[in-house]
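FORM 12-B: Structure-to-Sequence Request
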């Protein structure tokens, strides 16, 4: 909640513009300053600054709600609680579809159709509510340059030929999907930070990041000292911001995660994206497995290599994410 923009804390436009000149744009930026610093940047008295602090604190403080209220809200309008995948078996497992208000992680080895699934979900989010959609726009952050506009139109036309029966409807659908190609961790994080105002102005109903693993794998080598901490910090900050956006606006957020790790006779574990605890576990496991290799050589040679699905880790898990693995 501290990531909320000051404009949404009901501060005057003049004050928000003045604070932005000092790079103070969120509630967190404001609350991290001392009273003297706030008096300097706002030009207001000690008493007025105290009032501003209370106002901003109340604006970003999470509102208390009971479990009963959450249950009633979902039961009154169940269609707003999920975005259906239109895949009956998957919706049944997910109890309705991709949940709104939380993070959903799609994990699988490369080439299993994660991007195709994300493109399909983009189309579904633009559909009217009467057709199971969210009747809104989509922010699609592509870190692998894998998004295809041609494939988007093809999926829309094939899945819903009666609805997308004209070029005009296809054109309106494509205009509702806002694509950003971000190829570094810093650019991804900056984009996530700027999404709040975009969600409001463009009526965004779905956020997709495809994929988180791509930028992390390129920039962080866990064998180098210090990289593990930096990577964990990036994942924690990103997950926290995305959780805030999902909960604040009650929209689904979908992230994809590439899994290329395999267990073979040598038991090599070059994990692409794991949490700090996972890294420690894998490090210790590799030593134990090296010792057990001679004893279990016969057993492993009789079995085919198996895929090891490594999730985003505790950063995403603590943000209440759903995880779909294939």
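FORM 12-B RESPONSE
SEQUENCE OUT:
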């Amino acid at each position: 909640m501290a990531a909320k923009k000051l404009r949404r804390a009901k501060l005057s436009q003049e004050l928000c513009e003045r604070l932005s000149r000092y790079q103070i744009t969120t509630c967190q930026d404001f609350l991290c300053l001392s009273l003297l610093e706030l008096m300097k940047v706002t030009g207001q008295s000690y008493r007025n600054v105290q009032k501003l602090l209370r106002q901003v604190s109340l604006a970003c403080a999470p509102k208390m709600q009971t479990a009963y209220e959450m249950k009633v809200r979902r039961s009154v309008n169940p269609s707003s609680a999920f975005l259906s995948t239109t895949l009956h078996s998957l919706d049944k497992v997910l109890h309705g579809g991709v949940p709104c208000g939380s993070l959903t992680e799609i994990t699988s080895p490369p080439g299993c159709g994660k991007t195709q699934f994300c493109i399909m979900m983009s189309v579904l989010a633009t559909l009217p509510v009467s057709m199971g959609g969210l009747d809104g726009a989509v922010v699609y952050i592509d870190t692998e340059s894998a998004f295809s506009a041609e494939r988007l139109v093809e999926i829309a036309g094939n899945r819903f030929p009666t609805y997308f029966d004209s070029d005009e409807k296809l054109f309106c659908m494509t205009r509702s999907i806002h694509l950003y190609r971000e190829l570094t961790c810093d650019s991804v994080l900056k984009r996530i930070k700027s999404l709040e105002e975009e969600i409001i102005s463009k009526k965004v109903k779905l956020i997709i990041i495809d994929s988180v693993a791509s930028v992390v794998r390129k920039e962080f080598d866990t064998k180098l000292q210090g990289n593990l901490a930096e990577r964990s910090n990036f994942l924690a900050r990103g997950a926290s911001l995305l959780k805030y956006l999902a909960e604040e606006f009650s929209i689904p957020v979908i992230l994809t995660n590439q899994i290329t790790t395999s267990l073979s006779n040598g038991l090599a574990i070059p994990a692409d994206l794991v949490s700090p605890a996972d890294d420690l576990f894998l490090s210790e496991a590799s030593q134990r497995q090296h010792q057990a290799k001679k004893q279990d050589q016969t057993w492993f040679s009789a079995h085919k290599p198996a895929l090891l699905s490594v999730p985003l880790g505790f950063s995403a898990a603590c943000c209440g994410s759903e995880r779909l693995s294939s």
